Amino acid sequence: MTWHVSEEDLRAYARAELAAPLLWSADTHLAACAPCRAVLAEVSDPLDAAWERLDAELDAPRPGRFEGLLLRLGVADHTARLLTATPVLRRSWLASVALLLITTVAVVYTAGSPTLFLALAPLLPLAGVALSYGPALDPTYEMAVVSPVHGFRLLMIRTVAVLTTGLGLNGLATLALPDYGLRALAWLLPALALTATGLALTPRLGPVLAPALVGGGWVALIAVADAAADGGPLAPFTAAGQGAAAAVAALAAGLLYLVRDRFDVFHGSAV
């Protein structure tokens, strides 16, 4: 190699003042030339470099407790940031859900029937997932679009996080209804069915209309089942109803897998 970057150009390079096309030539040359890199290290001002590192450290956002825990568990930093930015994992949403469940449990004790709780509990995971994806509902959508994560993978990451949190809160509320035994767990399969169906319909109907239609359909089904119950358990919470919910959840999960590539298109567009 007969050509080397001049010391004057290296000093300008170190000060970020070297203009193109000399900058491009210097970048390419420095990648392959150890002597020029050694000269660059000599002419660079170590104090300036230290200040730059300090500025970068001070300007970098501090991870919160949840984000720090995810980082310690080995989650990639961009994935941890997207998870902690999920709207429904914030205190306001969690507090409102907890208050709603407490109120519902109190109503169950007053009415002597778990029907209201069983009807409401499946809607909470559906709403949580719906609020975690899409430009209309997610305030961090632009950050998600430019993140190095495919749309479907991001959706699944957030879905698992939201479901874990939502089902956990529902489970705690269920423990407050010991008198109803296993009947108090009859919300679980409908919750999975509603969430999977809402996700499967999202690429075609959008992140607002899809869960809204699924949630409205569930409310209509509960109303019809209540009118036909004649004092007995509602149809969705019988053995046959639970089997139907499991089948719907499985079919919706299969459809979601088939349309997974459409989430990348949806993820990259501001629809």
Fold and architecture overview:
The chain has helices at 7-14, 22-32, 34-43, 46-59, 65-72, 77-84, 91-111, 115-120, 123-130, 141-145, 151-175, 188-205, 209-229, 239-258, 262-267. It is elongated. The protein has 15 helices and no strands. With 271 residues, the chain is mainly α.
- Structural class per helix/strand content? mainly alpha
DSSP strand content: under 5%
Number of alpha- plus pi-helical segments: 15
Number of beta strands? 0
**Multimerization state:** single chain
Radius of gyration: 27 Å
SSE string = HHHHHHHHHHHHHHH
- Which blocks of ≥5 consecutive residues have pLDDT under 50? 267-271
State the end-to-end CA separation: 53 Å
Topology:
Elements: H1 7-14, H2 22-32, H3 34-43, H4 46-59, H5 65-72, H6 77-84, H7 91-111, H8 115-120, H9 123-130, H10 141-145, H11 151-175, H12 188-205, H13 209-229, H14 239-258, H15 262-267
TL;DR of this structure?
The chain has 271 residues and is mainly α. It contains 15 helices and no strands.
List its traits.
elongated; single chain; 271 residues; 70% helix; disordered C terminus; 15 helices; mainly alpha
